[in-house]
Amino acid sequence: MPGRRARHNGLVPAHPPRLDPAIAGRLKRDAAGLFPAVAQQYDTGEVLMVGWMDDEALRRTLTTGRATYWSRSRREYWVKGDTSGNLQLVHSVSLDCDGDTVLVQVDQLGPACHTGSRTCFDGRTLPVTVVDPLRARDARHADVAEPVRGAQL
Ligand SMILES: [Zn+2]
């Protein structure tokens, strides 16, 4: 652009770092530019929490070793553990088949949930109807296999 020059003072990069375009091109974002990120304990498989990311949060997560999210309520980036000390150290990051959800496998130090529980789902089980998989296989021509135990509705 004529007449426009990038500033080079040796401290601020001329171009801020951006998410690799090859990765950005695979992402599907919502209207706000966000996508959900599921955090999972890498060795036990525990589903720890769900947060939101934009391209920059994903870039930071991929490059800093610390899971970084976008807070929709505070409208700012937050590095998990910065205030609580309950760090999430990144082991791997995967896109799902549609490119609209990210799986972040981490080593979660301390509780993942701000309420103090290990995961955001601990102790928050909802009543469900459970079907015996063997009976479901036998009844494959029926519309619904018979529940072995049902939720109180
Ligand atoms: Zn929580």
UniProtKB/TrEMBL annotation:
UniProt keyword annotation of Cytoplasm present: yes
Q: Which amino acids does the record list as binding Zn(2+)?
A: C97, C113, C120
Binding-site positions, Mg(2+): D96, D98, D100
Which reactions appear under catalytic activity for this entry? 1-(5-phospho-beta-D-ribosyl)-5'-AMP + H2O = 1-(5-phospho-beta-D-ribosyl)-5-[(5-phospho-beta-D-ribosylamino)methylideneamino]imidazole-4-carboxamide; 1-(5-phospho-beta-D-ribosyl)-ATP + H2O = 1-(5-phospho-beta-D-ribosyl)-5'-AMP + diphosphate + H(+)
Q: What does the UniProt keyword field contain? A: Amino-acid biosynthesis, Cytoplasm, Histidine biosynthesis, Hydrolase, Magnesium, Metal-binding, Zinc
Cofactor(s) it depends on:
Mg(2+); Zn(2+)
Quote the cellular component terms of the Gene Ontology held in the record: cytoplasm
EC?
3.5.4.19
Instruction: Briefly state the protein's biological role.
Output: Catalyzes the hydrolysis of the adenine ring of phosphoribosyl-AMP.
Q: Give the protein name, as stated in the record.
A: Phosphoribosyl-AMP cyclohydrolase
Question: What lineage does the source organism belong to?
Answer: Bacteria, Bacillati, Actinomycetota, Actinomycetes, Frankiales
Q: Which gene encodes it?
A: hisI
